[in-house]
Structures are given as C-alpha cells and as structure tokens.
Amino acid sequence: MNPLLRVSLFRAHHSRALTAAAPQSSTALRTTSRIGRSAGKRHYSTSGSDSPKRQQTASGARDRAAVGVFTPKAAVIFVLTSVGLYFYFNYEKQKLQEQKKKELESRKWGKAAVGGPFTLTTHTGAPFTEKDLLGKWSLVYFGFTNCPDICPEELDKMTEVVIELDKSYGPIAQPVFISVDPARDPPPQVAIYLRDFHPRLVGLSGTYEQTRAVCKTYRVYFSTPKDATPDGDYLVDHSIYFYLMNPEGEFVEAFGKSSTVQDVVTRVQEEVAQWEKEKGKRT
C-alpha cells in the first residue's frame, strides 16, 4: 500500500475514535461534577455549625414539657386558691357546728314546761313518782274511769301505738294513765278499769292535793271539786291529750284527739332516732 494512503487512513481512523470517545468523557465529567456538588451540599447541611442550635431547641422543648403550665404566676394562684378553700371550708364547718348547737338549745329550751315532780299510787298500791319514768320513753294520759267514750278511745289509741313501737324497738315505751277523779278512782277501781287496755299500762291515782299537783305540773285542766264524794253528783272535765316524755323526764310533744296512731308512732320514731344520734342509745 502507498505510504501516503496509509497515513491518511490512520489519521481518519484516529479522528473517528476521538470523536466517539469525546461524549463519554464529557458525560463522565458532568457526572463527577454533580456528585461533587451533591457531596458538598450534604457536607454543608450536616456541618457542625447548626447542631448545637438544634440540640438547644430540643432541650428547651423537653424542659417546657417537664415544667408544664406551673409558672410562678400559676404557683401564686394555686396557693391563693388553697388558702381560700381552707378558710371557706373552715367557716362552713364552724357555721354547721353553731347551727347544731342552736338546734340543741332550741330543743332543750324551746319546749313547754310540762312535767316535773309528783307522788301518786299505782293501781297495785305501790308508790310512784316521776323518777320511775326515767330511763324510758313514756306516754302519759290524764282521764277518769267513769269517762263514757273519750278516755277509752284515747287509751285504745295509746295501746295501738305501744304495740307498734314494740314491733320496732321492743318495750321501749311505758304507757301511763293518771286519774283526775281522786274521789271515785282509788287504786282498786283503776286496776279494774285497766284490764281492757295494754298490759303494761300503769294506772296512777292519789289524794285531791296530789292529783291537783300533778295536773298543774303537766298543765292539765282539773275541775274536780275538792269536797267531791264517790257517790256525789258532779262533772269531771279535763284536757284530751297524752304526752310523750323522753328518758330524762322531759316533755317532747302532746298528741290530741285528732292525732292518728300512725301520727304518734312516726313522731315517736323520729324522736327515738334523734335521741339515739345524740346520746348513742335509744333510752
């Protein structure tokens, strides 16, 4: 082959080789450049200059979460509220105690002056005074054995009341009948009269002076003449009540003819409950 032709062919081949290799080299160069820039960006974003700030922010968030809303202002409000509540409840407690004290005084001094010392004789002939009623609840009725209808009706009612109370408490109440007719109601007569009523009913009677004294003590109207005789012609008038007395001999309430058995039972139960609350016992 002609040498000149060989040189020309070599140069043409070499030129095509360079042309084919040039794009690859450029692509590699551009790729290398992007990688370098990317690495530079990553290096910049994770540089140590920003890390302390982020750590401080995270630490502050944790501190705020631990402290919550308990700021100095909140602490002052909490203390003032606590002190206010203490004084409020202490005031209410004292107020309640004063109210209870007044109620007790009212119960003690607000009652009528009913009841007191007396001396009479039972239907069995034994002496009987107000002290024999202490330590028990008592229902006291004033009447006379010749009473045609009112006295028997009231004593029947008293009997039913005692029966109902016995069901709830046992023998907690003592029924008492006091005659306002000393001339016609000696103990034997009273004993006969009581057979129709409650077996625990105690019948009491006495002389004219004793009867007048006990009626005055219980504020019962007494009209029997002083010179009355058993066969005399006279009328007896009296108050139509029976009285509830507590275990200390104090008057609680008077029940009139209009009071029903249930009225009396309910009232006695209320008094027994209150007594038990205050004294720790029923009698």
Please state how the strands of the largest beta sheet are arranged side by side. 2-1-5-4-3-6-7
- Are there runs of 5+ residues with pLDDT below 50, and where? 2-10, 17-49
Identify the overall geometry.
elongated
Radius of gyration: 54 Å
Strand content: 5-15%
* Total number of distinct structural domains: 2
The name of the CATH superfamily of the largest domain reads Glutaredoxin
Please trace the helix and strand order, writing H or E for each element: HHHEEEHEHEHEEH
Query: Helical region count?
Result: 7
CATH topology of the largest domain: Glutaredoxin
Category from helices, strands and their pairing:
alpha/beta
Report the count of strand segments. 7
Query: Which architecture name of the largest domain does CATH use?
Result: 3-Layer(aba) Sandwich
Name the average pLDDT.
79
Distance between the termini: 151 Å
Instruction: State the major sheet.
Output: 7 strands, mixed
Helix content: 40-55%
Main location: mitochondrion
Family: Belongs to the SCO1/2 family.
Protein name: Thioredoxin domain-containing protein
InterPro entries: SCO1/SenC (IPR003782), Synth_of_cyt-c-oxidase_Sco1/2 (IPR017276), Thioredoxin-like_sf (IPR036249)
Kindly describe this structure.
- The model is unreliable at 2-10 and 17-49 (pLDDT under 50).
- It contains seven helices and seven strands; from the N terminus they run αααβββαβαβαββα.
- With 283 residues, the chain is an alpha/beta fold.
- It has helices at residues 3-45, 51-67, 72-109, 150-169, 187-193, 208-217, 261-279, and strands at residues 119-122, 127-129, 137-143, 173-179, 202-205, 242-245, 251-255.
- Helix 4 (150-169) crosses helix 7.
